[in-house]
UniProtKB/TrEMBL annotation:
<feature type="transmembrane region" description="Helical">
    <location>
        <begin position="47"/>
        <end position="64"/>
    </location>
</feature>
<feature type="transmembrane region" description="Helical">
    <location>
        <begin position="94"/>
        <end position="113"/>
    </location>
</feature>
<dbReference type="Pfam" id="PF02361">
    <property type="entry name" value="CbiQ"/>
</dbReference>
<feature type="transmembrane region" description="Helical">
    <location>
        <begin position="21"/>
        <end position="41"/>
    </location>
</feature>
<dbReference type="InterPro" id="IPR003339">
    <property type="entry name" value="ABC/ECF_trnsptr_transmembrane"/>
</dbReference>
<protein>
    <recommendedName>
        <fullName>Biotin transport system permease protein</fullName>
    </recommendedName>
</protein>
<feature type="transmembrane region" description="Helical">
    <location>
        <begin position="71"/>
        <end position="88"/>
    </location>
</feature>
<keyword id="KW-0472">Membrane</keyword>
<keyword id="KW-0812">Transmembrane</keyword>
<keyword id="KW-1133">Transmembrane helix</keyword>
Amino acid sequence: MRGHGFLLANYVPGQSFIHRAPLWLKFLLVFGCGLASFIVVDWRVSLAVLAGLCCLFLLTGAGLKKLWAAIRPLAAVLAVIGVFQWWMLGAPTAARIILNILVCVVAASLLTATTPVQRLLDGVVRAAGPFKRFGADPERFALTIAIMLRSIPYIAGTFADVRDSARARGLERNPRALILPVFITSVAFARQTGEALAARGLGEAED
């Protein structure tokens, strides 16, 4: 199974000031961009923010190829959303919605491209610590995120492989030839992951 990135850029080692920035500051950047996507009403402001984030991303040394790889899986969906919103609400609103989505994706990619996964998960555990008093389990929350980060690229890779195989057999327009193998492989992957966690005593509810 070949590897595939999905939506967010993978970690790229480096010594840029963004790599060295505190994790809480990166989390704050992502949170701020997500909040701004609900507040900003002018597409030109969204465009300026997106341009700034893209410049920051390039300063990390990740490169345009890495940035495009993070955005490319969304291209078709964004095109559909853009056309629909343009038809319903006009071009300025459609542009603002599309740009705000890209702002969130690039901001999150900036975090994942400059932060090792383990450090990111450790930060999640620390951030979720105060919620222990309400019965939350920060370690289990981090484990869930780790499984998600591992599973999404695997399933995306499965779909790409199945699509290529169906195309080779002339079945690329047959939904069953695409969906059924991906579904079976995904269920098998989920079972294997669950069994591996159970064998290590992880993910089980405490009495």
